4-hydroxymandelate oxidase
Amino acid sequence: MLPPLDHIPREIASLGDYEAAARQRIDPAAWAYLNAGAGDEWTMHENVSAFSRLPLRTRVLRSMQGASTATSLFGCTLDSPILIAPTAYHRLAHPDGEQATVLAAGATGTAMVVSTQASLPLEDLAAAAAGPLWFQIYIQPDRDFTSALAERAEAAGYRALVVTVDAPVNGLRNAEARAGFALPPDIRPVNLNGMRMPDQDAAIRALLFGTPVLDHAAIWDDLGQLRARTRLPIIVKGIACPEDATLALQCGVDGIIVSNHGGRVLDGMPASIDLLPAVVEAVNGWVPVLMDGGIRRGNDVVRALALGAQAVLIGRPILHALATAGALGVAHAIRVLRAELELAMALTGCRTLEDIGRHCLHGSSLAQIWPFDRTDDLCLDPER
Ligand SMILES: Cc1cc2nc3c(=O)[nH]c(=O)nc-3n(C[C@H](O)[C@H](O)[C@H](O)COP(=O)(O)O)c2cc1C
Ligand SMILES: CC(C)CC(=O)C(=O)O
């Protein structure tokens, strides 16, 4: 295996290049954990390929004076609508782990969502942060422990809680099983120290029902209770249909992330970008809707914003950049993606993020995923 780089060679020009570079630097079993999807990985691949079914529509000769990708979310000012998705165990990718990712996030004006399953203490990461951090929470079988975790995040200065609801059980991780992945003894979910972990493997072997894991899985009421126990904004991650978006709003959440967990939980789900429009429609502007899954290019960010997302999160590419060149790699990857976004905005005639809309996409491609009688406002208004 190659060691991490201390510079970025010119061959690394896109996020895709980081994937190839990372593969040479991560142990094959850890790679199976960090990069794989569930089952046959159909959803994981679909997350990426669905974007190519949304061709972009250019506009020319529009003024770009004062153009900007800046935005603000839950009181955090961000350089762009690109955030770092929560991913577990960054020390599997690089010895500096989340410490390096936090550094890069601060240096690039990006918000990072730190995973419950981070490999370093959430307080240490907050102390190293130079920008906004949000904390991702899985509602644990031990609800008191979950509340205590939320309190720790609030006390440490995290600016929002991202409650992930789409993984009550681990997905079918065939790639991990084939590679014989197990967490090395020196990499642990240190923020869960002191909590009794149910044995998920035993639970799955017992065919799920009646097992401790699903007996204690979170329900809507738990989300409502967490809402009552923290002053932080709560963003629910893993909403994939309008019915659940409506229930989340009824629980008083402050934001929604449309996600299929990077295709790591239920293989067979549609691509995240294809799930987005129906959720946006149901939310109807009440709270910001974000999305993740398959974002690899600045063009994809425009496509997601065109379909109503206020921001996007990226998962695997951050791990690839981290493995390749630590904090430097992550900062570079974020810069590359933002530069691509700027280019895509200039060529679709969008000076600011507010200018991005469905008019940036060709109407014929939208008919497939926009199942509403809304094609009339596909925006042929010359001023938009
Ligand atoms: C290795 C890995 C670990 C992840 N760990 C978490 C996690 O701890 N919490 C969480 O909410 N999502 C987790 N996710 C899902 C990501 O937050 C995100 O939804 C997904 O990676 C987005 O898709 P992308 O990788 O195509 O960008 C993980 C994803 C990967 C690849
Ligand atoms: C430790 C896991 C539950 C983290 C996760 O969400 C994932 O691997 O996708």
